[in-house]
Design goal:
By secondary structure, the protein is α+β, with helices and mostly antiparallel strands. The chain folds into 5 domains: 99 residues, no CATH class; 238 residues, no CATH class; 83 residues, Distorted Sandwich (Calcium-transporting ATPase, cytoplasmic transduction domain A), CATH 2.70.150.10; 148 residues, Rossmann fold; 118 residues, Calcium-transporting ATPase, cytoplasmic domain N. It is 48% helix and 17% strand. It contains 25 helices and 24 strands. Strands 5, 6, 7, 8, 9, 10 and 11 form a 7-stranded antiparallel sheet that branches. Strands 12-24-23-22-13-20-21 form a 7-stranded mixed sheet, sandwiched between helices. A 6-stranded antiparallel sheet has the order 14-19-18-17-16-15. A hairpin with a 3-residue loop joins β15 and β16. The radius of gyration is 37 Å and the shape is elongated.
Length: 750
């Protein structure tokens, strides 16, 4: 009896038919989903379909102790009767506990559960903090303005004291606003921001206490400084609000829960709990929370966060965090998680945020934090050289400091960069780093790897011209037979054309692919066969003189010409037509608009490339460049000092992409295979060119914004240093510069 129980306890069901199977004596054993599967026969193993045995998404489990059945107790081996009695009593006790336990969804149980992690702060959650900061800023602006307006009350002791009191309250409000709440890394350091208001207020207080002759002027200057600094901070916060809101929206959308695969189980987890290498399952209607690579399934997806179009993705395709599955079900392996995800890398990661690390973003902060003290020192030195009083020297220095240490100068470059990054993300464009964004903005030459970018990469046989006594069917049969084992688009087109015409490919032997040129083989009749370009024919010492007129005619039409030679003699010419991709002309125009020279890089003949170039308005062509030689060709383009970008598809154009200063890879965002400078979530060549345009415009607009913000304040500081204008005029000029720069930013974003 005990032996039978022990035998029954180790049997497992057959994975196909469910029959009891001994794991040690199973006819077949296989591993699926990191678990062993046992089969009672070879037929069951052959009929087993892993895709039909995917574990469904489980319902929430009830966490309660389960009672042991009497059979389980009896089946326990090597136990005495006393031990069996003890186990039976324990089983009965557990059964009583299970009956008394409330259901898993009982309100009392729910209340005792650990609370869900709080969501990211949104506008509503930040309302109190934002209101307090706005209130303090308003108080500072009002107080500074009132301290200046009370100048109309005269210069009596009471009036001056009242002005100092109001000024002190305004400065305290500004200090409280700067030091309260969480400081964004892109903000100007509080020490630099508050230096001029605090020192100006202290100078005004000392002047009032000592009853200095220029005390009214000192109070007026301090009031202007406090009001202008507070006004600049308010303007910057208002202008930055849409950027911060979109950044938080992205982070919130990517924090969606998903289903992680653990062996044969599927558990719901948050995105922050996922790690590279883990598997997830995404159903229709769900958002992909991490960058991943699809390993099973097919789906129609909106390929990035906020995408207006859909794409069909299947096994092997990368997918980015934020993509939404519209229809279907996919199983993916996590490639990038956390701040390494494409949509968070430059927007939320404090170590890699573009608005912190981009050169023009850093230039504004460095100017406000480091150049302002030099300007203050220069103004003070000039006033000292003119034998001015100590109070006047201090006023000159404070005015110069307030002219350059402003929130607008520190933030305008960062906001331009952040706006550009977010605009690119809305089109599915991902910059690898802040350095990549800056390099893309310096590109002067952009080379298109023609097939797959400007061209569809799906050529069709347009014409077959037999030579001599050969027949068109024989020519196509030989070509299809020679190319049948190649994955190249031209080979696919030839095989497809033969199948469409009902022509059986010739049974060629010993095919040898010559990269970028064609194929050499042996035909079914034993004669040497050569299929490929003019260059391959010349290399094999086969004359093409008789076909030159026809070759030139086809190439002038923009067609790719393939030649066929049998037994050392040319027997046919085939022209293939590859259509232009939608948006190819628009992509070229994007580059021309920012003065980037487009270059056509192709393995086709010069006449073919010139015809394509005329259609797309590309004057610079590099024809007859084999794939293996394109890296050297890109290096030659860069030898003249140009910054060269390559727009191509990975892995077909990896050599050219790897040799470029800036690599722009289509349909590669989310992939862990390579780290190109610019990655696209789509295969739209317009977006590839738009990436360079966005980078160029971000660089030029950030530079212009810095000039607009810095120039008025810098000119005002110099004018104050040489006593050309009153000190109070310099901070006002700086505020006007900030307003002008932010107004331009807003007009560009609208």
């Amino acid at each position: 009896m005990a032996d039978a129980a022990r035998a029954a306890s180790v049997l497992v069901p057959c994975a196909t038919c469910g029959a009891d199977t001994d794991p040690l004596r199973a006819d077949r054993v296989a591993i699926y989903g990191e678990r062993f599967r046992y089969f009672c026969s070879a037929e069951c193993r052959d009929r087993y379909d892993p895709s039909t045995h995917l574990t469904p998404l489980p319902l929430p489990r009830r966490r309660r102790p389960s009672a042991l059945s009497e059979e389980q107790v009896v089946a326990t081996r090597h136990e005495t009767s006393a031990e069996l009695d003890a186990r039976r009593q324990a089983a009965a006790a557990l059964a009583d506990v299970a009956e008394l336990a409330p259901p898993a969804e009982d309100p009392e149980i729910v209340e005792r559960r650990s609370p869900e992690p709080p969501p990211l702060l949104g506008e509503e959650a930040r309302g109190d903090v934002t209101d307090v900061g706005a209130l303090l800023l308003s108080l500072a602006m009002l107080g500074g303005t009132l301290a200046v307006a009370l100048l109309l009350a005269g210069s009596s002791g009471v009036a001056l004291t009242s002005r100092v009191v109001v000024l002190t309250v305004a400065t305290a409000a500004l200090v409280a606003q700067a030091l309260s709440g969480e400081r964004d890394p892109a903000d100007l350091h509080p020490a630099a921001l508050l230096a001029a208001p605090v020192l100006g207020t202290l100078a005004a207080i000392v002047a009032r206490i000592t009853d200095a002759a220029r005390a009214p002027s000192a109070i007026t200057l301090a009031g202007v400084v406090v009001a202008c600094i507070a006004g600049g901070v308010w303007l910057v916060q208002r202008a930055r609000r849409p950027v911060d809101a979109e950044r938080e929206h992205i982070a919130l959308e990517l924090d969606a829960p998903t289903h992680r695969v653990i062996a044969d189980e599927i558990a719901e987890v948050r995105a922050v709990d996922l790690r590279p290498g883990e598997e997830i399952v995404v159903e229709a209607g769900e958002t992909v929370p991490v960058d991943a690579t699809i390993v099973a399934g097919e789906a129609t997806v909106a390929p990035w966060l906020g995408a207006k179009t859909t794409a069909e993705l299947s096994e092997g395709d990368p997918i980015v965090a934020g993509a939404r599955v519209v229809q279907g079900r996919i199983r993916s392996v996590v490639a990038w998680a956390g701040f390494d995800r494409a949509w968070l890398r430059l927007t939320s990661d404090p170590r890699r945020r573009a608005d912190l690390l981009a050169p023009l973003a850093r230039a504004g902060r460095l100017t406000a934090e480091r150049a302002a003290p030099f300007a203050a020192g220069l103004a003070a030195l000039t006033a000292f050289a003119e034998n001015q009083s100590t109070l006047t020297i201090a006023m000159f220095a404070i005015a110069a400091q307030a002219s350059l240490a402003t929130a607008g100068i520190a933030q305008i470059g960062a906001m331009q960069v952040a706006t550009a990054v977010l605009a690119a993300l809305r089109r599915g464009i991902v910059f690898r780093s802040a350095t990549a964004l800056d390099k893309a903005g310096r590109v002067t030459i952009a080379a298109f790897c023609a097939r797959g970018t400007l061209l569809l990469g799906e050529p069709e046989v347009a014409s077959i011209v037999p030579m001599g006594d050969a027949e068109a069917e024989r020519v196509l049969s030989l070509m299809a037979g020679a190319e049948s084992g190649s994955p190249h688009p031209v080979a696919t087109a030839l095989v497809r054309a033969a199948r469409a015409r009902g022509i059986r490919p010739d049974g060629v032997r010993s095919p040898n692919v010559v990269a970028g040129l064609g194929v050499t083989a042996v035909a079914a009749n034993g004669q040497p066969l050569v299929v490929g370009s003019r260059a391959l024919m010349l290399r094999e010492r086969i004359s093409v003189a008789a076909a030159e007129p026809k070759i030139g005619e086809l190439e002038a039409m923009g067609r790719t010409v393939m030649l066929v030679a049998l037994g050392g003699r040319l027997i046919g010419v085939v022209g293939l037509q590859d259509g232009l991709r939608p948006g190819a002309r628009a992509a070229v125009q994007h580059l021309l608009d920012v003065n980037v020279e487009p270059v056509l890089l192709s393995g086709d003949a010069r006449e073919t490339c010139e015809a394509i170039g005329r259609t797309l308005d590309i004057e610079h062509i590099r024809p007859e460049i084999l794939p293996a030689e394109r890296g050297d060709e890109i290096a030659r383009l860069a030898d003249g000092g140009a910054t060269v970008a390559v727009l191509g598809c990975s892995p077909a154009d990896d050599i050219a992409l790897g040799a470029a200063n800036v690599s722009v890879a289509l349909a590669s965002a989310g992939s862990s295979a390579a780290e190109w400078n610019v990655q696209l979530a789509s295969d739209d060549v317009r977006d590839a060119a738009l990436a360079l345009r966005v980078a160029h415009e971000a660089r030029s607009e950030a530079r212009l914004g810095l000039i607009l913000a810095i120039a008025p304040g810098a000119i005002g500081a110099l004018a104050v240093a040489f006593a050309l204008i009153p000190p109070a005029a310099a901070p006002i000029a700086a505020l006007l510069g900030t307003a002008g720069a932010l107004f331009r930013l807003r007009s560009l974003s609208a």
